C-alpha cells in the first residue's frame, strides 16, 4: 500500500472510530510537557507545529513510519519552544520587564514584512492556523519578553549586520536551552 | 512566499527586530526553576456520569456550545468547588478549546497536580466538561 492510500485509509478509519458512541466522551486536551509551574498542552503543540507539519506533508514521498517520525519530531520541537517561551517570560518577569501594545504591533508588522505579506494576509493566516489574534499576539509578547530578558541579562545586541543577528540568535537559543535544562523540563508526547 | 510558510519566520525575526531596541544590563546568573518529579495518582472522588446523548466526532463539534456542567475526577485534597473557582470556564458559558487549554494551564500552575486531561461529551443540556486530575504525592 503506498503512502497516500495508507493515509486515506487511516483518516477514514479514524473518522469512523472517533464518532463517540452514546455514553462515551471525547478527548479535548491534555498536558504534554511541563517545566516549573508551566504546562504545555497538546492543543498548543499542535497549533505551534501545524505550519511545519503542513510543509512536511505538502511534498512528502517517504513511507508512513518515517512520516510519523518527522511529525513527532516537529511536535517535540514545538513543545520545547513553548516551554522555552514560558521560561524566558519568567526571566522577564523577574526583571520586571513588560511589552506594550505598540511593541507587539511593531513585531506583528515585522513578521509580515519578513514574510513579504501584508498584515491582513498575516492575520488571515493566523486564523487558518487555528489561532485567535489574542493567542498570536500573546505568542509574540512572550517572544519579545524573552528577547528583552536575554538582552538585559546576557548579551545586548551590538550592530545591525546579518552576522550580528545570527550571533545574537545563536546565543539566544543557547540561553533558552540553559533555562530548559535548569527547569528539568519533562515531555510526555 | 506561500501563506503556509509565514510561520516559518522564526522567533528570531521578532526577537532580533526588537532586541536592537533593548538596553543591555550587567550579566547575571539565571535562577534555576525547580520542579518536582510528578507522580501519577488517579482516584475518582467526584462522581460525574456523562450521559452522552448526541454523538460527536471532534472537539470542533462542541465549539461555542453552552457548557452544562463541569466536574473533576481524581482530586482527593481539593474540592470540586475550589477547583471550579480556579478555572475560567463556567457552567452556562460557551465551550472553547482555547478556554479549556487555559483551564488546564491554570490548574497545573496551582502546583499540587502532576497531570490534567480534559474530556467532554454532549448532552441535551449542553457540554459536560470533565477534568481528570493526577495529584502530586504529599
Report the sheet-strand fraction of chain A.
5-15%
* Rg of chain B, Cα atoms, Å: 20 Å
Q: What characteristic shape of chain A results from the CA principal axes?
A: globular
Q: Give the fraction of residues assigned to helices of chain A.
A: 55-70%
Strand order of the largest sheet of chain B: 1-3-2
Describe this structure in words.
By secondary structure, chain A is mainly alpha-helical. Chain A has helices at 3-17, 42-58, 64-94, 101-114, 119-128, 133-153, 162-182; strands at residues 26-35, 38-41, 186-187. In chain A, α2 (42-58) packs across α3, α3 (64-94) crosses α7 (162-182) and α4 (101-114) packs across α6 (133-153). The relative contact order of chain A is 0.13. Chain B has three helices and three strands, in the order αβααββ. Chain B has a three-stranded mixed sheet. Chain B starts with 10 loop residues before the first helix and ends with a strand. The chains are: A mainly alpha (189), B alpha+beta (138). At the A-B interface, β1, β2, α2, α3 and α4 of A face α1, α3, β2 and β3 of B. β1 (26-35) of chain A pairs antiparallel with β2 (113-123) of chain B.
Amino acid at each position: 500500500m503506498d503512502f497516500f492510500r495508507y493515509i486515506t485509509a487511516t483518516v477514514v478509519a479514524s473518522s469512523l472510530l472517533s464518532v463517540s458512541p452514546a455514553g462515551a466522551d471525547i478527548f479535548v486536551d491534555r498536558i504534554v510537557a511541563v517545566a516549573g509551574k508551566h504546562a504545555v498542552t497538546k492543543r498548543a503543540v499542535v497549533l505551534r507545529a501545524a505550519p511545519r507539519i503542513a510543509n512536511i506533508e505538502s511534498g512528502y514521498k517517504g513511507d508512513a513510519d518515517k512520516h510519523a517520525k518527522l511529525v513527532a519530531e516537529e511536535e517535540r520541537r514545538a513543545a520545547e519552544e513553548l516551554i522555552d517561551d514560558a521560561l524566558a517570560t519568567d526571566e522577564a518577569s523577574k526583571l520586571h520587564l513588560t511589552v506594550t501594545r505598540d511593541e507587539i504591533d511593531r513585531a506583528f508588522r515585522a513578521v509580515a514584512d519578513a514574510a513579504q505579506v501584508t498584515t491582513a494576509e498575516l492575520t488571515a493566516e493566523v486564523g487558518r492556523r487555528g489561532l485567535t489574534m489574542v493567542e498570536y499576539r500573546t505568542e509574540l509578547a512572550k517572544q519579545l519578553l524573552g528577547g528583552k530578558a536575554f538582552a538585559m541579562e546576557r548579551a545586548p545586541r551590538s550592530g545591525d549586520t546579518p552576522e550580528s543577528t545570527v550571533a545574537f540568535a545563536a546565543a539566544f537559543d543557547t540561553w533558552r536551552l540553559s533555562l530548559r535544562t535548569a527547569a528539568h523540563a519533562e515531555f510526555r508526547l | 512566499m506561500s501563506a503556509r510558510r509565514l510561520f516559518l519566520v522564526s522567533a528570531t525575526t521578532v526577537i532580533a527586530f526588537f532586541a536592537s531596541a533593548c538596553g543591555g544590563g550587567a550579566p547575571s546568573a539565571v535562577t534555576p526553576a525547580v520542579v518536582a518529579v510528578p507522580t501519577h495518582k488517579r482516584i475518582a472522588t467526584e462522581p460525574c456520569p456523562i450521559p452522552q446523548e448526541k454523538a460527536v466526532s471532534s472537539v470542533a463539534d462542541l465549539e461555542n456550545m453552552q457548557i452544562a456542567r463541569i466536574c473533576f475526577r481524581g482530586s482527593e485534597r481539593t474540592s470540586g468547588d475550589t477547583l471550579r473557582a480556579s478555572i475560567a470556564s463556567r457552567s452556562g458559558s460557551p465551550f472553547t478549546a482555547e478556554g479549556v487549554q487555559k483551564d488546564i494551564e491554570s490548574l497545573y500552575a496551582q502546583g499540587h497536580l502532576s497531570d490534567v486531561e480534559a474530556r467532554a461529551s454532549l448532552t441535551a443540556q449542553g457540554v459536560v466538561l470533565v477534568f481528570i486530575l493526577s495529584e502530586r504525592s504529599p
